[in-house]
Amino acid sequence: MNLTNKVVVVTGSSDWIGKEIVLKLAATHAVVVCLARNAEKLEAVCELAKEVWAADAYFYPCDVSDTAELGKTVAKIVSDLWWIDVLVNNAWIRQKLSPLESIDESVVDSVIDVNLTWLIHCTRLFLPSLKAKEEAAIVNISSRAWVTSQEWLSVYTASKYWVRWFTEVLKTDLKWSSVRVAWVYQAWTNTSMFEKTGEDFPVEKFTDPQDLADVIVYMLSLPKKIWLHDVRVEF
Known about the structure:
CATH topology: Rossmann fold
Largest sheet: 7 strands, parallel
Number of strands: 7
Strand content: 15-25%
Order of helices and strands: EHEHEHEHEHEHHE
Distance between the termini: 27 Å
CATH architecture: 3-Layer(aba) Sandwich
Mean pLDDT: 90
């Protein structure tokens, strides 16, 4: 896909992996649409995107836990821009390593809601616009956690496992449409998410978000007859 002037929505794009995906897309002269909770951070990402030659950049603050708000936000994006060409579902949160019985109910709900439920709703709401295009794509960012079990990461792993199978069924459902579907499952990535959970990991050894973003843009930039639908990224 030639990404020049393509409208690409990136969820969870206020920081970390999502921010880097936006900036890499901007360098291809795509129109980037940033979606996350923090309006101030989103605005800053859009300004950076314009500096690196995005065709244009827009941001839409949205509470990822509120499905009704998401519906209004998606409707506004489609109304403002007329269509979208690509959806990158990147919004995610992680639990602290803990035995299941020690995990608070609110953490369980938040991880499942953001990592899985919201991803499904976001895809569902954008799909009519994507299907109207002659060439479109959905990329879901998952995790290696679904294939490599790690102790004390049960809820996060469950959410990413179901992202994988949701993506597989969606790919089958859209096989004969103009929308191509892929998912990326990466190993540990160097973000400050670990600081948010109060954990100390050797993050300098993990995959850099910029490198992971390069992979996403490479996938989307391939010729029409080539599609990488199942990509595993390791450090």
